[in-house]
Specification:
The structure holds two protein chains of two kinds.
Chain A: H1 6-15, H2 23-31, H3 48-68, H4 75-81, H5 89-97, H6 101-104
Chain B: H1 3-23, H2 26-42, H3 45-48, H4 53-71, H5 73-83, H6 96-110, H7 114-124, H8 130-137, H9 141-166
Helix pairs in contact in B: 1-2, 1-4, 1-7, 2-4, 4-5, 4-8, 6-9, 7-9, 8-9
Chain lengths: ~130, ~170
């Protein structure tokens, strides 16, 4: 030990160790450390590319089904192509007007001719009843 | 492990010792340390992104100390009063010789201005170079070196009786 020698003085000073952090303060600081956040499960993400691909595929399937489906003749075509099994012309005309021409094909040949519905009496504008 | 846990583990004692040396007050040291801790908790990346985390934290502590002095001038006077009380700034020991040495050093440190204590602490007990000390305390390197020399000179006197006592006759 020699106080006039700077190196000796530094060595002596360095022998003293600075005070360590008290345990209670360490615990206090440690308690303020936020808990690690739980990882949020990643939501399945649908990219625009896959969305458009899916839509295009669905449209293609619908189009293919539409093209391969046997065409259904419309009412007028059916009526012209199947005159033999249909009742007489007035009835056929009536059924065609009532949009039930398809049912006509199911009628038996000897079915009685259908009559047009009876004309109803006009209603009174005052009483709103059948006069 | 949370980044703050490793900071507390690696640098907690250094921060505490440095702040205690600056403030010479246990309650003020606790307050400043908690304030620093709150800032770090808000943004741990401040330290993890630093090139030298220890130097960054010491600089942060020094700035926090300066801010606290500016905020309350009356507290600065309280520091001067507390400095004369020579708080226990060293680790307690069972070795009587070492304890006597520590008491003498603590008494001498209490007579020093805070800026000289800061340089002495960083040089002797943190092992920082004058270049690093200058960066931490935001002072020129020559100023850091001269403060260190002044501090050693002023510590020599309170230690002289101890040297005389221990000198072999």
């Amino acid at each position: 030990m020699n106080p006039t020698d700077p190196a000796s003085l530094e060595r002596d000073l360095a022998r003293a160790r600075p005070r360590r952090m008290p345990d209670d303060l360490r615990a206090l600081l440690a308690a303020e450390i936020p808990a690690p956040a739980r990882p949020i499960p990643a939501r399945p993400r649908v990219s625009w590319r896959w969305a458009f691909t899916g839509l295009a595929a669905a449209w293609a399937v619908i189009l293919a089904l539409h093209l391969t489906e046997p065409s259904i003749p419309r009412t007028g075509v059916l009526a012209e192509n199947t005159p033999a099994i249909l009742p007489d012309a007035p009835v056929r005309q009536l059924l065609a007007e009532q949009h039930v021409i398809r049912w006509v094909a199911l009628l038996p040949d000897d079915a009685p001719p259908l009559r047009p519905p009876a004309r109803r009496a006009p209603m009174s504008p005052l009483t709103n009843r059948i006069s | 492990m949370h980044p703050l846990e490793s900071i507390l583990e690696e640098h907690g004692d250094a921060l505490y010792g440095f702040l205690l040396q600056l403030t010479h007050s246990e309650p003020d040291t606790r307050d400043l340390l908690q304030e620093i801790w709150r800032r770090l908790a808000r943004n741990p990346a401040l330290v993890t992104a630093a090139r030298d985390p220890r130097a960054f934290l010491l600089r942060l502590a020094r700035n926090q100390f300066i801010d606290s002095l500016r905020r309350a001038e009356t507290r600065s006077k309280a520091h001067e009063g507390a400095a004369a009380e020579a708080p226990q700034v060293f680790e307690p020991t069972d070795d009587p010789d070492l304890r006597q040495l520590q008491d003498s050093i603590a008494f001498g440190l209490a007579q020093l201005p805070a800026e000289q204590r800061a340089v002495l602490h960083l040089k002797l007990w943190e092992g920082q170079t004058f270049e690093q000390i200058a960066a931490i305390l935001d002072i020129p390197q020559n100023t850091a070196a001269s403060r260190y020399r002044y501090a050693l000179d002023r510590l020599r006197e309170p230690l002289r009786p101890l040297y005389d006592e221990l000198r072999p006759s």
